[in-house]
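task queued by scheduler; priority normal; single chain, no ligands, no partner chains; default sampling; output format set to structure tokens
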Amino acid sequence: MNQTNLILQIHNLTRDSTLTEKQLAENQELKKKNKELETEKKNLTEIIQQMTTSGNDFNVSQAQWSIDAYCPKENNNRKCNPCQKGWDHVESSCYAINDANRDQWKTWEEARENCRGKISDLVVVINEEEKKTVSKMSWTYGNKGYWIGLRVEDGKWKWLDGRNLTSSSWIDQPPSDGHCAISVKDQGFKSVSCNEKNRWICKKKALSV
């Protein structure tokens, strides 16, 4: 083999090696992009599932609004957030603290209707840690607080998810027909007439972005 042929073979090997490295880099970039698209698809699927299980009539315009709220477009790309703008993200949940002007405060039923219109419900507290979180959100206004998803049904305190209130230390007053619970900062839960008007806290599941 003469020197010219040897140089030519070395050149070809170098070129092939460069092409292989370039192809590997392109392949890695494609895998990364595919993973991002899969994540985006998962997030959008979660949003649509929330829409269809919320108890509200599902329609395309409402779904599009929800997608845009969670995953706003930036430079023709969507970046999804755990909660939509205006909601607080804590652990696996999103909370909307509704600090309306006093003339816009609502009864318990009205507050719940407002939450359901946001594809959520009045906050249901799962454990002591979440109770502390909700308490911190419940700014006081005199002895007024925020509606939560707890009311008296059949002589028992019952959460909106169907569970009975099992910790009697969470609310001092015994169950009384026509009463619902408010959360008051540093004072825990209080029993008041469901027809009173108060502020309210909504809760929904956060996206797993």
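post-processing summary
- Strands lie at 73-74, 77-78, 88-90, 93-98, 121-122, 146-153, 156-159, 179-184, 188-193, 199-205.
- The first strand starts at residue 73 and ends at 74.
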